[in-house]
Amino acid sequence: MALSSSYSSDDNFSISAEKYLAKYDVLVYLEDSMAQLLEHREENPKVVASKFLCEYFCSLRDGNHTMFREFNFIRKTAHNRASFVHLFWKCFRHIGKKGDLLSIQEYHSLLGLLCPDFPFQLVQKTARIVLIDDALDCLISFSDFIFAFQVQFYYEEFLEKTFELYQAQLQAMHSPRDPVIVPTSGESEVRVHQNQHLPSDGVDAAHFFRAISPFLGNTVDFSTPSASSLKEILFSVSRISFYGFLMAVAKSDAINAQIGRLPDKAQLLEGADLELASQTLKTPRINKQRSEKVQENISRPTKTQASADPAVKYTETLPTRPETNLTKPGAQALPTRPETNLTKPGTQALPTRPETNIKPAAMLKKPTNPYKKNLPPVVLLSDTDSGTSTDSSDTN
């Protein structure tokens, strides 16, 4: 299926309906939207089809529809490829701000966060644009990687075709059909017939452009750079290697503007990174639910983790502790402690002491003796009085 075409905007009114659908890959997105809608209805039968399709095509317009999608869908159209490059740049441009250098394995891990089945081979091809084959283990800056990745991913079929043409020109330049020169004449004559260029010097740039020019424009079903941008690259040098050709295409401002998803190198690291779980992303609802499930599974511990980690187990039982403690006898003993303490002898003496102390105080104020009436009166006599009384008794 066609990935892209280079029709101008004025041609939209002159081309046929079939070419228009192929130009914008309308059938691809209609089929994918229906497939996602049916898949989503299995999980949520109450989904509104019109609202789901509205969110899908809004996400498609904004370029956020490739997040968490499979690789076959991402590479199916030119719009998907450019949107994925733009999404990768928005999510991880902070790496360039910090000046970090990463290996190709680390860049592949970052790509795997957005597309789990992204192939490692494509990352290796991207590294060969920046590095030579003997230095693939070296670290790469983010700015060099993102522009090389854009060219390799967006123009993948075009670069494969140009490599075949480049190899064909190298073989023609050193073909065994070349005449064998016997050194019987002068040395100067031999130099005229000898090839002055090694394979590492590349091929003639003008001949190389003439070889790839038939594949530019509307004659192929894959994306290609414009002829003017390739002329600017190939007509500025006499000879060019394939490695130099790839580097020039990756660094071309005209080709970057033609794709139209990355800013120029001066503004590449400006702005804030996009969060993967941000609510501003208008991804299709099926993808949003998948990402929510992934985040939920990551944050929620499994039964094995809960049993192995006491901290996880504590956080799980914390919300249910008030209910379980109310049913336990130990929890009920707290409000009944004052009553149980009152029944103890030691605790009863404290409140009754004031009453027992009041009664003796009242008795001291008004003493009463029950035997006072029965006792005879006591008379105290002096010594003289006692003698007188004795005499009188005797006289009697």
**Sheet with the most strands, sense and barrel status:** 2 strands, antiparallel
How does the overall form come out from the CA principal axes?
A: globular
Cross-sheet strand order for the largest sheet: 1-2
Order of helices and strands: HHHHHHEHHEHHHEHHEHHHHHHHHH
- Enumerate the spans where pLDDT stays under 50 for 5 or more consecutive residues: 1-8, 186-195, 278-290, 293-327, 386-396
Tally of DSSP helical segments: 22
Class from helix and strand fractions: mainly alpha
| Beta strand count | 4
Q: How large a portion of the residues is in β-strands, by DSSP E?
A: under 5%
Which value, in Å, is the CA radius of gyration? Answer: 49 Å
Helix proportion range? 55-70%
User: pLDDT average, as an integer?
Assistant: 73
Distance between the termini: 166 Å
List keywords for this structure.
single chain; 396 residues; mainly alpha; two-stranded antiparallel sheet; 22 helices; 4 strands; globular; disordered N terminus; disordered C terminus
Topology (elements, then pairings):
Layout: H1 17-24, H2 26-43, H3 49-62, H4 71-74, H5 78-92, H6 94-98, E1 101-102, H7 104-114, H8 120-130, E2 140-141, H9 142-154, H10 156-173, H11 187-193, E3 203-204, H12 205-212, H13 227-234, E4 239-240, H14 242-251, H15 253-259, H16 285-299, H17 303-308, H18 310-317, H19 321-326, H20 329-342, H21 345-365, H22 383-395
Antiparallel strand pairs: 1-2, 3-4
Characterise this structure.
The chain has 396 residues and is mostly helical. Helices cover 61% and strands 2% of the residues. It has 22 helices and four strands. It has a two-stranded antiparallel sheet. Strands 3-4 form a two-stranded antiparallel ribbon. Helix 9 packs across helix 14. The protein is globular and about 70 Å long. 19% of the residues are buried. Mean pLDDT is 73; it is low at 1-8, 186-195, 278-290, 293-327 and 386-396.
